[in-house]
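Retro notes, item 3 of 5
We never archived the inputs for the D-serine complex last cycle. Fixing that now. Sequence and ligand:
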Amino acid sequence: MHIEKSPEDYYNKIFDLLEAHHNWFRSCIPLIASENVPSAAVREALMSDFGNRYAEGWPGERVYAGCVYIDQVELLCIELAKKLFKAEFVDVRPTSGVCANLSIYTAFTQPNDRMLALSIPNGGHISMGKKDFNGTAGAVHGLRVEYFAFNKDEMNIDVDQTKKIVEKMAKDEHDPPKLAMFGGSLFLFPHPVKELADFFHSYDMFVCYDSAHVSGLIAGGKFQDPLREGADALTLSTHKTIFGPQGGAIVSFEKYSERIKKAVFPGNTSNHHLHSVAGKAIAFAEMLKFGKEYAEQVVRNAKALAQALYEKGFKVIGERKGFTESHQIALNIVDYGDGGTLERELEKANIIVNRQLLPGDIQAGRHYTHPGGLRLGTQEVTRLGMKESDMREIAEFIKRVIIDKEPTEKVKRDVIEFRKSYQKIHYAFDKMLDAYEYVKIRG
Ligand code: DSN
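Structure as it came back at the time:
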């Protein structure tokens, strides 16, 4: 018999589910490369009244009254981000990485222009995708997306072949790209910005670098320094290797500031989530203080996890180059199943990863629901205080699920035991709350 739920039933159920999620994550190994766990300080900022206000425009030039304190926080957020990225100009208003990329498209291209980016199996993000695939660049801004040449063995952009592609577009077709977008979602090794930026500039292309995944590593002085290597702007996420709230930002030079500001507002945002700006500011202060030590440990952990997985028999992508220089590890798991199935098996053992399209998957007939890869990231487990020896334990848990096919219930029991020692946040000013502690503020 169907019993109609009351509003109270829904209300209580939602809180039950929220609390259940927090309790579950306390005993999981979180390895999604695009996530992180914010400090209690960031969570406090997110709960503030800033989240209920409007502040369209730039600090001091708002469309609304009531922004006395909001303006001060946003200016501090900008100041912190400028220090973090040694930059002349930062716009912290984009509400996501996609919004930041779309603002760059708006500022520096016209619909129907050509743009250069990585294809999704080679590491590109959906925001750089073609119209046919409903990617933001093609479907929203009408750009014609062309691909960088990619070297699968190097897991990187092929410099010489890419130059040939652009020369052909410019000389034979009289239609060079207007924008090159480095960076992406599967991102193991620094991209050849230094090798290509001058060449792209010689065709009047704007050079952007999507650092959504690696922004915390760049801020911490690891990986690469795109603005000094020739990029005109960085777009970023504030919640992957930076441990802030979900959001975006654009980092660039003063000469581009007016175009970027207009593209962000009114171009691509109305109000810009002011509680998130406060959270970004707190996370930037944490990064300024702890970012170097954190970024170094993230990369050490990624290398240790990759090495341990390799020694246990996994095909770890990028072997010849030391597996990774970022927080990410990519596994080719076609010998054991497909990415979709194995992602779910690992989840049953409280190991949270995501399936990943790898270079060559589409040609091999694989699809994004059942791709040939898994992607792992070490940024969140590093925030929980884990070190290289813990990476070896994690590799063993993953092997037990994927290679040994042990019952996931059995592995899960050991994962829960392992996780008990890692409940606190590291690289933060305030460590009072546990990382995934559920905070109840209703009566
Ligand atoms: N799709 C996300 C990632 O995991 O890379 C970023 O938006």
